[in-house]
């Protein structure tokens, strides 16, 4: 997944959040998470060093003496923010697009997980239906089949995870094109047909 903020953008966004009201570092982290609908939450190791740098540059200061007092925007920080209103508007638009994209990806992941869960539940129900009575001697052929089925399922899951990771890495640079989608469709259709041909 690509980074949420490009170079210097988080710095600008922190200034904008402090324009609304003085905030502690943890409040800024919480507000950022809220702005992204919970799809992104920066770590303390990301936010606090930037706040320290902003303080060094004179753009923010502590409201009171002491490490636990909230950060406030200084006049210098307000002037920088005023000079970069166009950049801030573009950044707000980018944030909105990022939230939509992350929400779409989260929904797709949830749908995929639910499909897998439904398939597992259906398989478990089928297994219960065909399970022999307790006094029936075990069927070695059925036991071997069960082991191989689990092995095949593990291979499918590993393949899926690897391909999804490759696609997401390529998407960072916008490299996923029509040819990739068509290749995935063709290969999966062929693989499904070949696998089914081995089954009775």
TrEMBL record:
<feature type="region of interest" description="Disordered">
    <location>
        <begin position="129"/>
        <end position="148"/>
    </location>
</feature>
<dbReference type="Pfam" id="PF03551">
    <property type="entry name" value="PadR"/>
</dbReference>
<protein>
    <submittedName>
        <fullName>PadR family transcriptional regulator</fullName>
    </submittedName>
</protein>
<dbReference type="InterPro" id="IPR036390">
    <property type="entry name" value="WH_DNA-bd_sf"/>
</dbReference>
<feature type="domain" description="Transcription regulator PadR N-terminal">
    <location>
        <begin position="14"/>
        <end position="82"/>
    </location>
</feature>
<dbReference type="InterPro" id="IPR036388">
    <property type="entry name" value="WH-like_DNA-bd_sf"/>
</dbReference>
<dbReference type="InterPro" id="IPR005149">
    <property type="entry name" value="Tscrpt_reg_PadR_N"/>
</dbReference>
